[in-house]
Each structure stands twice: as C-alpha cells, then as structure tokens.
Amino acid sequence: MPKLSVGSKLAKWRGVQRPILILGTLAIIVTFVTFSKFYSLRSLIVADSFCNQEHTNTKSMNRNQVRETIGIVVQKIQTEIDDIRNSQTTSSDSSLKFHSFLADILGLIESVQASLPEIEAISEPKIGINETHPLLKSNPQSDDPADFFLIEEIRKYVKMKPNRLGKQNFMGANGTFTSIGHACFAMKKELEEYMDYDIGEICNEDWKLAQKLMVHGCDPLPRRRCFSLAPKLYSKPFPINESIWKLPDDRNVRWSQYKCKNFACLARNSTGKGFFKCADCFNLSHHELPRWIKQENLNPNSNLSADFLAHQVLDIKPGEIRIGLDFSVGTGTFAARMRELNVTIVTATINFGAPFSEMIALRGLVPLYLTINQRLPFFDNTLDLIHTTRFLDGWIDFMLLDFVLYDWDRVLRPGGLLWIDSFFCSKEDLDDYLESFKMLRYKKHKWVVVPKLDKDDGEVFFSAVLEKPPRPFR
Questions:
Q1: Within a 10 A sphere around the Cβ of 86, how many other Cβ atoms?
Q2: C-alpha closest to that of 31 among 3, 73, 2, 91
Q3: b/e for 363-374, b at 16 or more Cβ within 10 A?
Q4: CA distance 372 to 405
Q5: Phi, psi for 300 (deg, rounded to 5)
Q6: How far is Cα 134 from Cα 180, in angstroms, rounded to an integer?
Q7: pLDDT digits (tens, 9 = 90+) for 246-256
C-alpha cells in the first residue's frame, strides 16, 4: 500500500477532527457562561477588597442570557449530529465514535440546562422562619445584611454609604461601613421593633429593649434618627465640689422602667430594689464614703484584707498613674475617690435595675455605657490603670475571661497597673482562675487570697495589683 503524503494525512485529520474543534470551542463557551453566572469577570481578574467594591444593581449575565446561550449550544451540537448522520462517512468507525461522543456531551448539557432552576433556588435562598442563621451559612460573602431585615431604617443603616464625588475620605476608605453586632441577625424581631420609629420624632421608651439587645450580643446597635426621651423637668446638676458625695435630684432621671422611683429608695437598706449587685452603692454617706480610704473586712485569722487602699496602690508608681478605667458594678465611687487623688477614671457601667449611668454622670464623673461583650473603645497601650471589683467573678467562663484579660492588656500601657479588687469564686475554681491571671506574666506587687466569711468558708476573695511588663518589639 502506498504511503499517504503529509498533505493527505492533514486533509483527512481536518475532515474527521473538525467537529472535535467545534465541540471544544462550544465547551469553552459553556464553561465561561456557567462561571459568569456566579462570578463577575472583574472578580476573576482583580482581587478586589470589600472597601473598593463597586455596588451595582445589574449582573454581568442574567439567568435568561444563560438559558439562551446554553440553548444555542445545544442546537449547534444537535445540528452537528444530524450532519454526521446524513454524511457519506457515517459508516466509518471514527465518525460513529464521534457521533456517540457528541450525543453523550449533549445529554450532559441538557441535564445542566434542566437543573438551572434548582441552582437558582440554592444560590438565592428565601428569607423564612426556618432559615439557617446567616453566620452559619457556608458562603457568607454573598449575604447582604440589608436583605435580611424588613424595617427600612435598618436596611438604610447597614448599606454602605459611598463618599460624595467618588473620592476616598481622610481615613482612606471609599465609603462608610456602618456596623451592627453579629447577634442582631438572631434577634431580628427585637431589632426591628427597636428600629421601628418615626424619623425626626421622639424615640420610643425602649432603652431597656436596647440594653437587652446589647447584652445578648447585638452590639453595637445601629444609630437612630429620632430624639431620645429626656426627663420632663430636668434641673441643672449640683456643682462638682458637692455633686460627688450627694444624691442627685430625682427629676433628672426617667424612672418608669425601675422599681424604685427616686434615689432615696435606692439608698435605703432594703430589698426588692430591682437589682442585687452593688446593693448598697447608692448609699453614698455610709457605705460608699469610706471605700478605698479605710480598710475593712479584715480576716481575723490572718489579719489580711482583700481591700487595698487607693494611696497604697498609687504609691507603687508615684506620679505615673493619671488616667484609667474602672470596669465594675457601681455608682462611680472608685472614680470619685481617684479624682480626689488627681487621677481621671472612666467608669464602664450598664443599667441593671437602676440608673447607674445617670448616677455616675450626675456625680460629675464619666460613665461608659458598655457591656462585657464589646472590645474596649481605647487604643493600644494608652491607659495607666485598669480596676475591677465585684463584676468578673466566679460566674464568668474561663474562655471569656481570657478574651477580656487580653483586651485589658491591649489598652494598658507598659508599666501600667491592673488592680483586681475582691474577685470572688468557689475554692474549687480558684486555681483555674488564678492561672488565667498568671498567664499575663505581669509583675506581682500585691497578691492575696482570703476566705469569704459570709459563705461558710466555701468561697474566697482574690485581690492583686499587677504591673504590665515592657515587651520588646519584633
């Protein structure tokens, strides 16, 4: 048999394989169309950041275009199959194999075409009662928070606010990204109630609802465009030289959400006042006035006390303690005492059953309305002192305590003091809690453990003054 020339081979290859080239081209088109349904061309070329995304209401290719393109591909493949059937080379093995191959590909593409409605249903879930929490979805970047809520004010708040003129602001962002706490999605009903108001009018009497949202993780709350309620007959506060140790004017507080309706009720030595932590801290003249200047609760056996005096702590770093944070349950007495010693203290508080925030402010001190869920709103290495008492006690989870302590370490400057004041827990848990404080590797200036006498020796007090060490830069 004579050998075929190169030209004859090429001609035969072109005649048989031309449909394969066509099929390959069509397969590429199908692949591109399918991917373009879920990804924009820009996302395949440029790794864009969230802050630089261009918000548009149109997609690169809608669903109708996808259906039309796949339909065209199916039609062309069907035409190619018909041509092979009608051609004179139908009996050849290569044509039969190619015909079978095309038929298989056509079947696969038609199955994809039939499943398009199911893919759409998966890619665009409907909001319903039994919907999976947004934080648990496998593809959170596709969720727009505005689409989750029905109240228009929430939708407007969480939308990115682009800068005017399309320029970056002084913070280096192309827009403002207002945020809400992640648990707000799990408290949709309560948050929508909170954001259901008339713009420009007086807000509802709903601070208790707002505090419930915050405590349960919907923190930060969205801002609102209504005017907060104020006391009807607000009187000017007392001068600073007398306001620190004097009960404020009752008219300066809205009392509708409290059991007690005046400060005298809060200061009385009685039960049923609506709160149990810091039960006597509104009694300024007797319970609060001696605190941190007079040592109390001495243990009769060891002659030790968990109560350190203010001047003893400040003398550890003479002249260096100027500003700090008190993270406790109280009415600002620690800040008042430190103010007398020329130290400025911000008091973190929340209104658990009584107007703690108003009380602190009316005393002429600074309240910071803050839950334990939130990262402290201070920059790194800025505070000289952090003090806590009767708050982070034996109820707190060990993991949560770790996060809190590391955040305190973040804002405390090198050489700053951490004052743990009368932390109490059961004897069984003491070693575990002490390990949490030891992991900071702070220098110990004071460290004492004494029995809690009112609990039949089953609980203990732990107090310490610790100094943050300087850490070398990497």
A1: 8
A2: 73
A3: bbbebbebebbe
A4: 11
A5: -65, -25
A6: 14
A7: 999 999 999 99
